[in-house]
Amino acid sequence: MAETVFSKILRDELPCHRVYEDAHVLAFLDINPISRGHTLVIPREPAERLEELSEEAAAAIGRVLPRIARAVLAATGATDWNLLQNNGRPAHQDVFHVHFHIIPKHADGSGLGVGWKSSKLQDGDTLAKEIAAKL
Fold it and tell me: I want to staple 16 with a disulfide (CB 3.0 to 4.6 A). Which of 28, 32, 67, 76 is the partner?
């Protein structure tokens, strides 16, 4: 995996505003937040994309995401929020280390804006079986 700003943060070579850490996970405030309380949650394990992460590291993040989200909401007064995780440059990933964004949505409209262009499901039975077979 290539060196990233998160690698440097994990090695304490760059500062961050830590909000949570344990043996597997680090959470800190985004330095370019979309809204007040925008928090990044990263695994200590190096992996560029979510599908490359070990089950142990993924489970560790899954265990703490709700707890961190509750703390962000309590501290900021927000009641709504988005959880964002991107994989690959075409999917808007800029830092190539797995990370989750907890982005509060505030009454002033700050937060994540999402455009959702949906379509009608085609070949659902076939696709579901193909995905299930890959598990």
Answer: 28
- Whether the pLDDT of residue 2 is over 90: the answer is no
Encoded tokens for 116: 């959702």
The class (CATH top level) of 5-134 is: alpha beta
pTM recorded for the entire structure: 0.93
Locus of tokens 């499901």? 121
Q: What is the pLDDT of residues 58-99, one digit of tens each?
A: 999 999 999 999 999 999 999 999 999 999 999 999 999 999
* pLDDT at res. 114: 86
Domain coordinates in residue numbering, the chain:
5-134
Which residues have C-beta within 8 Å of that of residue 75, sequence separation ≥ 6?
A: 37
Which residue among 38, 97, 99, 101 is the active-site one? 99
Rg (CA), the chain: 17
Rounded distance between C-alpha atoms, residue 31 and residue 34, angstroms: 10
Q: How far apart are CA 117 and CA 126, in angstroms?
A: 23
Is residue 99 flagged as an active site residue?
yes
